[in-house]
Design a protein that fits this description.
about 25% helix, alpha+beta
Length: about 575
Amino acid sequence: MFDKEDLEGPRIDRRTATKLLAAGGLTGLAGCSGGSGDSSESTDSSGENSSSGSDESSGASDGGSSGGSISAGWNIDEIEYLDPHYIDKGQEIYVSSNIYSGLVKIGSDGAIVGDLANDWSLPDSSTYVFDLKEGATFHNGDPLDAAAVKASLERLMSLDDSPHLGKVSSVESITAEDETTLRISLSETVGPFISFLTRGPGRAGTIVHAPSATENPDEYNRMPVGSGAFELTDRESGEYLQLEAHDGYFETDEDGNALPYLDSVRIDLIPEPSTMWTAMRGGELQYSNSIPPQNAGQAESMDSLDVVGTNPGAWFCIAPLCNDPAEVEWQQYASGAGEPTDKWSDEDLPTTDPQVREAIAMAIDREALIERAFFGYAEPAHSVFNPSIAWLYEEEPDPGQYYDPEAAQQLLDDAGYTGEPRMSLSLLGTPSDERRMTVVQEMLSQVGIEVELNVQQESAYWDNLYRYENELVMYDGYVDIDPWMSLWKQLKTPVESGSAGAWQANLYQNSEFNSLLEEDYRTSDMETRTELLRQAEELFLEDTAWAMTTFPLIPKASASNLTGVGNQAGLSNFHTAQLE
């Protein structure tokens, strides 16, 4: 159990922060990519870290030069959500972390430190009292005080359709005692609660301008009013977002210089990986939040570019459709789901058989996949807990998912799939998935499974996913800084209200698994949590809820004269970025 002294400000040490973030489903921020407040960390393909920048609160490397504008590339075709109470994709988190502030953030050594909060205390284990910075403002000039933070949290509490509602379900009352003092009282002890309040990945404590968000939520989602280092001033759907420095931003570097240093950042949406690399190599972009791994080696050899490899608390898997959506009564509660398809009423759905799912997991040669599709920028995934969840991750877990094509074929024989081919399945993915989709297609063919690739642009991918018309889906998670994110949000059976199963990609359900997750959520004792989550992991592996593939290292590239970008845990923060 965490003592309340462990959870008090002005900082929570890295060790405790890692456990808290893990407990809150936000593991990547405290994980193997280092995690500074907004410092630039470099990680080579072996996963070793080397610092190449500075924390957002400690200034840029040369003491705070200002000015200049950059163009950055985001590998997505559309940013659907900029309202943090609805954001559920890594690419959206990366943008929003530049636009908004939070009560707290991740500091230079992985500790949880104040963002808007100077300090905080716990009079008891279920009460948080925050001391806020004076004079902070939103981008429109409105005061960012305790009343504004209270309104932001209460707005989230009123949103029955928010995937983050569960993070504040234990909040009993919020009181703005004066302009700079905020008290949050919980109905019960929730160990990871402070991690929910981190800027960006936490999202619950990412502060929205409640009047604007309430008055016109659609417009707010498109052009939000935040209080972060940059203000969104213009955007063209599917093309770009224009960020301008917020002159009233409350943070300074250690020498008292105003942040941010840059005048503006243009974010171009570039879903095609080869186009991103061409633009980066040609100098049209000064930063890319992801370049193709096959180009990373070439980028490393170029004097004009620097490469950072980060593991953003990420995992990649193949999600097999575990149930016929027409037969799952709770399907309508899953995020983005519409009417259940009736496609499978007339067709065989082999992936409902656990033996078939296990055979698919055994047919994947993860080492070969890393070499051929990731060019070394990944680690093999044999179970569900990514390396950033250090207290649960095991490099070679037992039990686990391992390559065994002979056993895979025997499982398919036992399941009655003995034809030539044994079965034909559709695999859904995005253009950035296509290389590994092709490798997986070949591997599955070796055990007699014919796979048709269904490659869709990012926005169309999500629509297709929630129609549940593909037996297999390339699926992944980012900034998972706690098993709560991977298991509760992705695999628990959804309920009519709350966040459980909000992102169910493949209609998995197991009542014992659900009960273990519910018990885990209500405890902050790490030994008890470990025991409960190991039991849940055993069920995950027994059912083959997902066929795990890799824990990726994301290669990010920047022009050699651009320093101070915060790349920790997959984020791309420009608070202390500067052009030399």
